[in-house]
Design brief:
The structure is a homodimer. Chain A is of the alpha+beta class. Chain A has seven helices and 22 strands. In chain A, strand 9 and strand 10 form a beta hairpin. The longest helix of chain A is centred in the middle third of the chain and has 27 residues. The interface between A and B is large, with 41 and 40 residues.
């Protein structure tokens, strides 16, 4: 996935005849003390990515898409075995002795409590240098505000080109996964959360249930959106309404506050369709007795009684339980991309972008993360580059808990996350920063 | 339209066996000094509505849907003739001597400069009393926050029921217009902007190019959204993508920054599809040479080279120019409904909700309206009930301009609006207010 984004963005900024992008030490980025290249000739983009697979590739596919840990963890064969220990669940971070991640980015991960053999989160982090020509041709020049480049030509900003390149990368990745299942029988799919830094702006692209937030001066700025059957109800219902064949006569695209009973035929009941945000009444007809396309609430909300996440890559073979109906058309591979302009605010060393997989967010609120950011960072000197890794570790540990009473438990005795947990902490104004 | 909304909302609050809703002095509302009824047994809802027709009903239909002016203007036959005078364009307001509109709401309108025989804006305003039973059954009771009424029952708030009733009213109105064209040959369609006040909340529903803003302590709060081919690009493209038969092989659902030339076949060009907010590159294929579904910018943006507004009622017979392709599937009758809770803020007599048709907004910005609000209201005593009509008149006059140099011109010598202009000014904390 990261390769896709890297090549899409690199292709974008180098288009016009410059040499092809040179990934520099793939998956083992250079120290961020490397002199920042002057935009736009040689922008660099250190993208970080956290994602969690929804279903394990079957054994048959392992040769092609085997599980591994991020190279930057520099795990020895012995370390790899310890990292895979479901009983110990040791927190993994890059070693203090090696090269740091760009900007002294912090990272930590932990394996699940036994729900799957491997850690199905897969992180990576990379710096790309592109040596382009002096002016970026191919991509239209940034026009002055409100003034199109040519007559009858729509204004296309650099920002919208980067967003489009990332969107395109997600789509191409999904198509690649569709192609690769032929002959490989790769099952399953995954979510993806990608961060690209380019020319002073941070782009956060999310498809799935990972989450990114900025904690800035104690304030929480959401940098991604949840994609659930509830938040995407109208998109899903519209698809079912316009393409009723996707519902196969088994589901209704209408939503009701509860399951309709056959004895209620002819009675009035509240409903919502794809155009409505409120509820209105309708007379119950035979079709309304079908199972609802979207049902359940909160964590239990499902599309076609099958999936609880509505964006992600892969899953091309996924079917409705005990049915041949495909899920994929409702599961979209397109991310939402949010842009954060780093130059619009004077950041201090305690301002961070936190990326976490669902393992973190299942048991940790945004506010709890912000509190941990404050607590951990204030215990370190502002120029101590290890503080962000310490923070990532604290977040992972806080979500995992400790083994007690036949389970992993948090200090309040509630269950911790038994899922894989991965966390990046990217400092926005810290040591070794971009500026 | 207002009848539809009135009956939908009245039906909602009276459902459960109470007597049917009694419109009180239809189109000539009672003075707002009438004692406010206690919710929810007898809520009252003074809805105001401003909308502008896009095409005049043909003569054959006039018997059924003839143009008229709001009853509350109390126009004599002579006054009606003067109001229809395209040369004079006299500003019309309710007479000082008659009953005031609810809450001392201000109103003013003016006919167009000759583009159509009639004033195609149609305003109305009404107070409805509903005598329901002591508790509203049928509609579920408002549950305590986060706690469903029944197990497995989704929480349905009173607010979402009112929103749903209004959405439903728009849809039913549109269906009624579809039915009525048979046998009547009614052509054309219209936008609609509806305000409903109920139980402490103001509901603003908009489908089209009218606009509502609240000016509160000088601050502008948008209460409606523009629906144009540009703001609705992704909805329109998705419809064209999922139902390609609607494009009839004449249009492409993809967007390009400019028209693609046949000689560019095989070359790379930027594009956006229904899933993208950014731009990416694709190789031009034969299909991409078709005319784009959405094209043009700003005021000149069009769907299928035909309409510039993408929400509204009617227009069921509208076809693409020199083609048989119907426009209607792309033109949605569903409004966006915004809710404003009047109880969350202590309003002063200068806080107002301003509704205007496109004739106002074509030449007046939100900021200019806010400046006029400040200027006019500060010239009147806070308890002078005529100040809101004076404000509505000032807004209409400011958009119309004065006849000079062969046209209606604004003080800056730019052209004023030659369109019909209608403005409601609803005070949120003024004399005769709801509280």
């Amino acid at each position: 996935m990261l390769n896709r984004v890297r090549s899409a963005v690199a292709h974008l900024v180098s288009s016009g005849g410059g040499p092809p992008p040179r990934p520099k030490s793939p998956d083992l980025p250079t120290a961020t003390s490397a002199p920042p290249a002057a935009p736009p000739e040689a922008p660099r983009s250190p993208p970080a990515r956290a994602g969690s697979a929804r279903a394990a590739p079957r054994k048959i596919a392992e040769a092609r898409a085997s599980f591994s840990r991020p190279t930057f963890l520099q795990l020895s064969p012995g370390g790899l075995r310890r990292a895979d220990d479901h009983a110990g669940r040791a927190v993994q971070s890059p070693p203090d002795t090696g090269r740091r991640l760009p900007w002294s980015t912090g990272y930590a991960e932990v394996i699940n409590a036994g729900k799957s053999r491997h850690n199905e989160d897969q992180a990576c982090c990379e710096v790309v240098y592109v040596e382009g020509r002096r002016s970026v041709s191919g991509a239209p020049r940034e026009p002055s505000r409100g003034q199109p480049c040519w007559p009858l030509q729509k204004e296309v900003t650099h920002e919208s080109l980067v967003v489009g390149a990332i969107e395109n990368a997600f789509q191409l990745m999904d198509e690649q996964m569709a192609r690769e299942r032929r002959g490989h029988q790769v099952e399953g799919g995954c979510c993806a959360l990608v961060v690209v830094y380019l020319l002073g702006k941070v782009y956060v692209a999310n498809a799935g249930d990972s989450r990114a937030i900025i904690v800035r001066n104690g304030e929480i700025i959401p940098m991604s959106q949840e994609f659930t059957p509830e938040t995407e109800r109208q998109r899903l219902q519209l698809l079912g309404f316009l393409k009723p064949e996707l519902l196969g006569g088994e589901f209704t695209h209408l939503e009701f506050p509860r399951r309709v009973q056959p004895k209620e035929l002819g009675q009035r009941m509240l409903y919502r369709d794809q155009n409505m945000t409120g509820w209105a009444y309708k007379k119950i007809e035979l079709e309304d007795l079908r199972f609802p396309l979207v049902c359940g609430e909160g964590k239990k909300a499902r599309v076609m009684a099958t999936i609880g996440v509505t964006r992600g890559l892969g899953d091309h073979n996924l079917r409705v339980c005990s049915s041949t109906l495909p899920i994929k058309p409702f599961l979209s591979c397109f991310p939402e991309v949010r842009v954060y302009d780093l130059t619009q605010y004077e950041h201090c060393p305690d301002d961070v972008l936190v990326l976490g997989t669902d393992g973190l967010w299942d048991v940790t609120s945004d506010c709890e993360v912000a509190a941990t950011v404050d607590k951990v960072l204030s215990a370190y000197e502002p120029n101590d580059p290890s503080r962000y890794t310490a923070l990532a570790q604290a977040l992972v540990l806080g979500a995992r808990g400790t083994p007690r009473d036949r389970g992993w438990r948090l200090p309040n005795n509630k269950l911790g996350s038994g899922d894989d947990i991965s966390v990046f902490v990217i400092p926005l104004g810290g040591p070794g920063s971009y500026s």
